[in-house]
Design brief:
34% helix, alpha+beta, 256 residues, three-stranded antiparallel beta sheet, elongated
């Protein structure tokens, strides 16, 4: 058993998989299969799907897989769990939150993970450049598409979201965007719905959704931060607003 476990830790013949993650098995450079450790989900073909709790559907994995966390991979070195380079953004906590990109060789895929996506240079309708950070919870349910068809699936998803962010910011003035920074509004909710529509496009075979392209879907999304990039322009706009208010106050005093 000890030898078996040591082999599994190295993904030789057998493998282990941390909770909430997926590992892909390859033959040569090609996708062969995957195994997972995601509670409440089952493997159906090349996808993960939720168990039907109403039908009292049970975990399909065996006792060794569920209890010991050991999975059969195949005859090594023909069947392998390869490492690959993955780049993803994280938030660094300090005096000011910053988005930092990490890059690491990994051999698993997180089934669900929250990514802070930063979009710079988003212009308002009155030409103010904004930086928008959106926290996106993503679910990767088809590792074959994510790893072997889309290649860099997170970049594909970010590009699709960026077009929505650009349209959203471009349809509003700086004052309108600034008012959205802290308030929960219907406009924000509608924007999130637009993002969720990226997952699947019904009756549009010419423009498939993210589920068909990268094997992943957006579960939720929230505005993390909306900042102006040009502080001088902001200061000038605020001075103008103050001058207009003072002028209105003087006019009101004269009328009295």
């Amino acid at each position: 058993v000890l030898v078996l476990y040591r082999l599994a830790l190295s993904d030789i013949f057998f493998g282990t998989c941390p909770e909430g993650q997926i590992k892909v098995i390859t033959v040569g450079e090609s996708y062969h299969d995957f195994f997972h450790s995601v509670t409440g989900y089952k493997k159906v073909g090349n996808q993960l799907k939720p168990l039907d709790l109403e039908k009292k559907e049970k975990d399909q994995r065996g006792w060794v897989q569920c209890r010991l966390g050991i999975y059969w991979i195949g005859l090594w070195p023909l069947y392998k769990v390869p490492y690959y380079q993955f780049d993803w953004p994280t938030i660094t906590r300090g005096e000011k939150e910053e988005i930092e990109r990490k890059s690491k060789k990994v051999n698993t895929i997180f089934f669900r993970f929250e990514y802070p996506l930063e979009f710079k240079g988003m212009e308002t309708s009155d030409n103010f450049r904004m930086t928008v950070v959106i926290q996106v919870l993503v679910e990767v349910f088809c590792p074959e598409l994510a790893r072997f068809k889309a290649r860099n699936w997170l970049n594909v998803l970010k590009a699709a979201i960026e077009s929505k962010v650009r349209d959203f910011v471009g349809g509003k003035t700086f004052e309108e965007i600034r008012g959205l920074r802290t308030e929960k509004t219907l406009e924000k909710d509608n924007f999130v719905k637009d993002l969720l529509d990226l997952n699947r496009r019904e009756n549009d075979d010419a423009n498939p959704g993210m589920e068909d392209i990268i094997g992943a879907r957006i579960v939720t999304a929230n505005f993390q931060r909306i900042d102006a990039e040009d502080q001088k322009a902001i200061d000038a706009l605020e001075k103008k607003a103050v001058a207009e208010r003072e002028a209105q106050a003087r006019l009101a005093a004269v009328e009295l």
